[in-house]
Each structure stands twice: as structure tokens, then as C-alpha cells.
Design goal:
Elements lengths: L10 H28 L4 H7 L11 H8 L3 H32 L5 H9 L10 H10 L7 H23 L5 H8 L4 H12 L1 H16 L3 H6 L8 H11 L5 H35 L1
Length: about 280
């Protein structure tokens, strides 16, 4: 007599699972839907007659008003400049620091690594005053570097932690072979190690992008002129200046938010695979 064991989920449990997942998807997608439809409405629909429905009249001119009247094009460009520069600096600094800590034998390598990891324990809010004082003393306020350097510095600890998980798995024999072929430390790093660290580079780049693009506190405190404002601060200024027409404000929110969503949609698999690979290798 054969006994058949059904290891699959029961139909009732499967139905409840799908219901829960559908509800959870709705909870996560609805704010995006609301923000997008909000950006295409006028004040009458936003505040009364059609709060959550599709726009009766799709007002695409709200985006033109946000880009022109609110200077969103300038804030968008500033965010791109600051984010790209901070990603490049933090990624290269993290890769080189990780190489020096994990691949080169020297006396204070472990102490240096512990010093970098200390950065993970420092809250961003606690550093605003000392960073502001330093930037003010060296006359670095209201410049692109005002945000680029702090963003890169505060991304460095996590970037080194991520990179270390990948680098420890690269065989040390490659370093020795490169040394025999006449490569120094820089040659070994750029010709051998860095090409093998592409998954870590992409992971660090994505992490830094998410940190820098949405950052508000530093950008609000350290930048006081309108020339170097980034998107989060620009939207705050827009809501203060143009409170009579909320459609362009919604359009500005979409302009600021959707690049992050698009980046995550296309790179989510790579993000998850990179973190899992780093954890296994570490």
C-alpha cells in the first residue's frame, strides 16, 4: 500500500497567500499611482471632486510649469552632477581602500578597517554641525563640492564593507602572478583586481545612488543659494513659492522620485544577486 505525501501548499493556504500578496502589492503601488495622477490634475480635482481617481483632464503642462517656473531642470541637473561625482569618488576610494586593507600586508590594516567601519555607527544627523563648521572654515559652502565630498565620505564605510565580501574570494595567487610579471600595487589593482570586482562596483554604485539622490538634510543646510540646489531642496522651495497650484508640485515629485524607481526596477535582480554573492563570499 503506497502512501502519498502532498508536500505542496494546500489550496486554501495558497488562496490566502495570493490575497495577502495582492493586498501588499496594492499598498506599495498605490502611493506611486496617487503621486502620478496627482501631478496631472488641477486644484479642484486634487482637493475635492476627484482625489484618487484618474484625471478628468490630463494636464501635462504641469511638468512644463515645474521644469520652467520652479527651475526643476536646474535642480535635476545639479542632482545628476552631485550624485555621479559622489558615486565615482566613493566607489573608487572604496575599491582602493579595500585592496589596501585586504590584499597588502602592513601593520595597521586591521585598525584602519575598524576605523572605516566606525563610520557605520555615526548617525547622519549627529554630523551636521561639525561638517558645516569644517565646510564653512574652508569656504566650501554653496558649491557642488559642498555635497559631493560629504556624500562620498558617508557612503565609504558601507562601500568598503560590500567590497570586502567580494575581494576576499579573489585568489591571492593572481597578485603574485602579477608581481612576477612586473606589476606594482597600482598595476595589480587596475589590471587584475578591479576588472574582477564588477559586481561589487555595480552594488556600491547603486547603493551610493540611492543614498545621494534622495538626501535632503545636508543639501538643505549646506546649500543656501538657488544655483546649487538639488531636487529634494528644490521641491521644498517650490511648495513654498507656488502653493496656489499643486499640480506642478506633484510633477516635481514625480521628476524626483521616478529615476530611483526606474533604476530599481531595471537593477533589482542585480542588486539582490550582488548582495547574496557578497554575503556568500564573505
Amino acid at each position: 500500500m503506497e502512501s502519498v505525501t502532498d508536500k505542496g501548499p494546500k489550496p486554501v493556504a495558497k488562496v490566502f497567500t495570493y490575497i495577502f500578496l495582492g493586498f501588499w502589492a496594492f499598498v506599495n503601488i498605490f502611493p506611486i499611482y496617487f503621486m502620478f495622477t496627482f501631478s496631472l490634475k488641477n486644484n479642484d480635482e486634487i482637493f475635492g471632486s476627484n482625489v484618487i481617481g484618474l484625471p478628468k483632464q490630463w494636464i501635462w503642462s504641469n511638468y512644463a510649469a515645474a521644469m520652467k517656473t520652479g527651475n526643476m531642470w536646474l535642480y535635476f541637473l545639479n542632482s545628476i552632477i552631485v550624485t555621479v561625482a559622489a558615486i565615482f569618488i566613493s566607489t573608487m576610494a572604496a575599491m582602493m581602500a579595500t585592496y589596501a586593507i585586504n590584499r597588502i600586508r602592513w601593520k595597521f590594516s586591521k585598525l584602519t578597517n575598524a576605523f572605516f567601519m566606525l563610520g557605520l555607527t555615526i548617525p547622519l544627523q549627529a554630523s551636521i554641525v561639525p561638517v558645516y563648521v569644517v565646510l564653512s572654515n574652508i569656504h566650501w559652502l554653496n558649491k557642488y563640492t559642498t555635497l559631493i565630498i560629504p556624500y562620498a565620505a558617508f557612503s565609504l564605510s558601507m562601500a568598503i564593507l560590500i567590497s570586502s565580501g567580494f575581494m576576499v574570494d579573489i585568489p591571492s595567487a593572481l597578485d603574485e602572478a602579477a608581481k612576477i610579471d612586473g606589476c606594482g600595487y597600482f598595476g595589480t589593482f587596475f589590471k587584475i583586481i578591479l576588472p574582477l570586482m564588477k559586481p561589487a562596483v555595480s552594488t556600491v554604485g547603486i547603493y551610493s545612488f540611492l543614498q545621494c539622490w534622495n538626501e535632503f538634510m545636508f543639501a538643505n543646510v549646506f546649500i543656501s543659494d538657488s544655483v546649487h540646489r538639488t531636487l529634494p531642496v528644490g521641491i521644498k522651495a517650490l511648495s513654498g513659492q507656488h502653493t496656489t497650484n499643486w499640480g506642478p508640485i506633484g510633477a516635481a515629485l514625480v521628476i524626483a522620485t521616478f529615476p530611483t524607481l526606474i533604476a530599481y526596477i531595471f537593477l533589482s535582480r542585480k542588486i539582490q544577486a550582488s548582495f547574496i554573492a557578497g554575503a556568500v563570499k564573505g
